[in-house]
Design goal:
- By secondary structure, the protein is an alpha+beta fold.
- The protein has four helices and two strands.
- A two-stranded antiparallel ribbon has the order 1-2.
- A hairpin with a 2-residue loop joins strand 1 and strand 2 (about 30-35).
- The termini are far apart.
Length: about 80
């Protein structure tokens, strides 16, 4: 599916949201991912279902966004 949206992968996420809703499970290669497409779905997963998602794998983006500590809750500016 992503091959159709090489120039704009965010458009693919919009297409997925329109087809399947605001909370979607994705298998992306070896990785399992959950696509959250609304503020309500993000709050539900991160606040109400945190115990399910607390052991998610460490990715390089956590170093960039959260200063190496994904649990700190403080976003870093990247620019």
């Amino acid at each position: 599916m992503f091959a159709k949206y090489k120039s704009d992968p965010w458009e693919c996420f919009d297409h997925i949201r329109n087809l399947y809703g605001n909370i979607v499970f994705l298998q992306m290669g070896h990785f399992q991912a959950v696509l959250l497409s609304s503020l309500d779905s993000i709050k539900k997963v991160l606040l109400e279902k945190a115990d399910i998602f607390v052991h998610r794998p460490q990715f390089h983006r956590y170093d960039l966004i959260f200063g190496g500590d994904r649990d700190n809750g403080q976003l870093r500016l990247l620019c």
